[in-house]
Specification:
It contains 9 helices and 7 strands. It is of the alpha+beta class.
Amino acid sequence: MGAVAAGTTLLAVGREHINSATVGLGFLLVVLFVAILWGSKPALLASVLGMLSFNFFFLPPVYTLTIADPQNWVTVTAFFITALAVGQLSARARRRAEEAESSRHEIRRLYEELREAFERATEAEALRRNERLKSALLDAVTHDLRTPLTAIKASATLLLEDREMTDQTETLAPGEQQVLLKVITKEADKLDRFVEGIVDLARIEAGELELFRNWGAVDEIIEAALTRAESLTSRHVLTIQLEDELPSVRVDARAVAEVVYTLVENATKYAPAGTRITVEATRSSEEAVQIAVGDEGPGIPANLRERVFERFFQVADHGMLSKSRPSGLGMGLAIAKGIVEAHGGHIWIENASEGPGTRVSFTVPVGDDEPPANGNAPVPPGASGD
């Protein structure tokens, strides 16, 4: 009512200079704004009031609701119908806009709920993973840290007691002392490997694994790993199958040899004595060389083949092996995966080529540079020349 009154006042001021068509458009604008601002019912009221004001103040005879000229009946009727249509259409457009805005708010609200639920689920999963990791780490510490500490403590105690008790008739023979010292050295090496493994894993996960890439021969890398593993493979039949004319690879030879050693060490742990362990190297593509270590052990179920590359995970802990839990920290394959992927390669597990067992394969890049003309590459600081 206020909008119609204001429009009527403005139009009445210039009534002598405007015609009825202009007045009708003015009232239509009033109805349009009312519909946009307040909706369909106020627009309907504005249409009725606009029609009455149009007739009363602007159509002769003015200040009456009488319409003398039949053409003005057409004008008033057309105005009223147009005002109704414009008002309802504008009000409908306003409702649709409000509904769309409401839908956007609802979608945003649902999205926020889903995001919060996802974050809660992610946090819950992270907590579960952390709990599993803590449990695995505790198990590794309990089994693989306490055992060497106990052996070191017992051996050192015996040596100290033997030296302090000067009045005893029987002392440890030199051979017995030597055995105890070897026990201490051996178990200290285990602790050292434990710490090194933890540090290597931390570097890999932080993306700080430093590689010293040089050109090297695949057979030399494998030979270095197998020389180190001689004491482990002595109870197995070792077979080496190298493809002829393998290209040189541009890798950190010491790190790749560590991967091969880890795979051979795992094979000797899980494969029975007297069974065959096979080390193979082939050209998998123009850009990569594939190295594989296979054994004739019990094998690894398909559903665990990805998990064995997790930290502190051991297949023996999941009841897949009949013998007792083998020594180890469950970090070897996790470190091996980090080294391989740092080179841009891939590592995976599959069934053995023949019969039971496990075959672990990985790829290393051939490289994109030519090797030095003399075939020699600089040796990184701290690395040996062989």
